[in-house]
Every structure is written in structure tokens, then in C-alpha cells.
Amino acid sequence: MKHKIAILPGDGIGPEIIAEARRVLEVLQSEQGLSIETEQADIGGSAYDAHGHPLPASTLKVAREADAILLGSVGGPQWETLERALRPEQGLLGLRSELALFANLRPAILYPQLVSASTLKPEVVSGLDIMIVRELTGGIYFGQPRGVRTLDDGQRQGFNTLVYSETEIERIGRSAFEIARKRSGRLCSVDKANVLEVSELWREVMTGLADEYTDVELSHMYVDNAAMQLVREPKQFDVMVTGNMFGDILSDAAAMLTGSIGMLPSASLDSQGKGMYEPIHGSAPDIAGQDIANPLATILSVSMMLRYSLNEAALAERIDTAVGSVLDTGLRTADIASAGTQTVGTRAMGDAVVAALQSG
Ligand code: NAD
Questions:
Q1: 240 lines ligand 1 (CB under 6 A)
Q2: Most CB within 10 Å of its CB: which of 9, 31, 117, 148?
Q3: For the chain, which residues score pLDDT lower than 70?
Q4: Which residues are catalytic?
């Protein structure tokens, strides 16, 4: 079966890092029997410049028709003064909601070769491999009513609403249980059930699901404790599942345990396994066009895409191994360089991964 992949390079370093990820796909296609068809489209600020909108209808159509989407990054200072609805980030948010990409998968993996990049002690982080599953389309970021109102005494009051229906909780719960099943079989659900009714329901639904997934060991943790445990003893976690806002915060903290933003991929999935794959970093306008951006997070996003949307786990493994072997040789882009390593540019790092795939 031919997999359809939509490729959306976006802004800033997006086109440079996507170019390297494309080369990885091409090698797998020409030498490893991967059957794909790709179509490229505009998103973000560059889409606004070309079409007057950060998510043009033509891009949405390409994304809808694809089995998976590979995205670079969006944003840049030149578009920050546009009205909110036309800003580059709206392209991303629009895609997530139009395609109902409700499950955000954020792995935090520390490669042994990069252990010194973390600000935590090596013994605390070496071997770290966590998957945070964050609900992405509900919770307080979308709950109604919301706004700023004026009270009787004349002062203004801001308000947002934290809501989760049973269906929404069950949907993200199932995704997390399935992922835990494919990993070590341990799942920690993070909530604030000691204070919030929404969290009480969240905990109840997760506990109910555990009866169906008897091979997965479910535990619960309050979000404040989870934040503390992530920096105290992060290796106690395997898969964590949580709501939108808690996940937003915890996944950034987990990412920083690895110390290298240029290494971390992410996925946002719908209920059928269709997904959008992208590095967690932004468009890095400060280094765009200089051939110094790290393409590895994007290349590892291709690996996630093969594993989670295209059912090609063996090829995903080949990419992961190739990246590991390139790091073993001491090659580093500037963001992950340290004493004794050899600094290379975006293109040369892509060359090295392609060569490792060809020899592996
Ligand atoms: P950023 O992630 O773009 O950059 C933060 C720092 O990390 C910068 O110093 C940058 O040079 C560096 N960096 C990021 N990716 C790198 C890579 N692959 N290799 C080497 N260094 C890298 O975050 P920011 O500066 O806060 O935001 C810049 C723009 O990106 C903004 O317009 C923001 O809205 C947007 N943004 C987009 C996304 C996305 O597309 N998903 C995510 C975050 C931020």
C-alpha cells in the first residue's frame, strides 16, 4: 500500500530541516521498499505571504487526504503584528482542530552520547525515555465560557473554564493505554483530583479503562507531585497521560531534562492513528538560512510517523539506530556540541544520517 504523506515545511528553519527529513524518506523509499507518495504545501507565515492565510484551503485539502503529515515549524517576527486569526500559529491550531488531532505524544529521550547536555546529574537522567501523552483539543484552552468581564464594583475579571467530557477522557485514555502496552506496560495518569471535580471524573474514567487493559499497570499522581518527581527521579516514569494544560507544562519540563530542544520529535494523532509529526522546537528565526539548525528532531519525527501512523516500525527502528550511530561518531550540530565533538551544519548532519541508513 502506498502511504500518502503531506509535507508542510513552514517558516524559519522549517524548510532546511524538512529538506533533510525528505532525504531520509527518499533513502527508505529507494533502498528499503518504503512505498510513499508525498505532496508539499504551504503553512504558517509563508502561507500567509503566498495565499493571504496561514492555513489555506488547498493546504487543508492536502492534509486531509494524507495518511500522515510532516511539519517543519511556523512563525517569525515579521508576522507577529498581524491580527490574531492570520498569525502563523493559527495555521497549526487550525490543522489540529480541523483534523481532530487530540492525542499529543511527546517523547523525552536522552541519548547516552548527549548526557552532558542535561542540567541534571548524569545518574538522574542517563537512560531517560519517557512518553508524555497530552490531551490536545479540550480542557481549559478550549472550554466555554471564557473572557474578561467587568464586575459590579467596576474591576475586570478574567475567566476560563476547565471541562472534560467522559468521551474526551476515555479517548485520550485509550491512546495512552495502547502506547503503554507497546512500551513497558506502565502508565501514570496525572491530575489534580484532590481539588478539581474534572480531575475526579478523569481519575474515575482512567480507572475504569484499566479493567480493559489488564496488561498495563495504572498509577495516579497529582500534577504538583508529578512536576516535582520529573526533576527528582524522572526515570520512574514510562508513559504519562494528562490533560491539555498540565501536559503543556509537564512536557516542556520533561523535554528540558534532555537539554537538547533540537533532538525532540512529537506526534499529534486522531482516533484512527492519522497524525501530524513535527519537532517540538519552533522556527528559530535567529538561525534560519545559515545551515546550522539541528535536523535530528525532524528526522526523528519521520521515525515516529513510520511507527505510529504508517505501521512501519522496522523502518522507524532503522532511523533511530542511524541517528544513534551518527552521534557515536562524534558529529554534532552547534546546539548539541561539546568538548571533543565535531561541529557540522544541517546538511552535513543529514548526509551523515543518510550514509548511516545506507550502511546499516
Ligand atoms: P524556538 O524553538 O524557535 O527557538 C528557541 C531557541 O532554540 C533559539 O535560540 C533557536 O535558535 C534554538 N533552536 C530551536 N530549534 C533549533 C534547532 N533545530 N537547531 C538548533 N537550534 C534550535 O522558539 P522561539 O524562539 O520561542 O520561537 C521562534 C518562533 O517559532 C516564534 O514565532 C514562535 O511562535 C514559533 N514557534 C513555533 C512552534 C511550532 O511551529 N510548533 C513551536 C514553538 C515556537
A1: no
A2: 9
A3: none
A4: 141, 192, 224, 248, 252
Domain with CATH 3.40.718.10 in the chain: 1-107+274-360, 129-257
CATH superfamily of 129-257: Isopropylmalate Dehydrogenase (3.40.718.10)
What was the pLDDT predicted at 1?
80
Q: What is the pTM of this model?
A: 0.92
| Ligand 1 and 45: CB distance under 6 A | no
Evaluate whether 337 touches 325 at the Cβ level (below 8 Å). Answer: no
Predicted confidence (pLDDT) per residue in 211-255, tens digit:
999 999 999 999 999 999 999 999 999 999 999 999 999 999 998
Residue 31 CA to ligand 1 centre (angstroms): 33
What pLDDT score was predicted for residue 95? 95
Q: In what order do the strands lie in the sheet with 186-191?
A: 36-40, 3-10, 68-73, 275-279, 265-269, 103-109, 129-135, 239-242, 186-191, 217-222
Task: Say yes or no: CB of residue 11 within 6 Å of ligand 1.
Answer: no
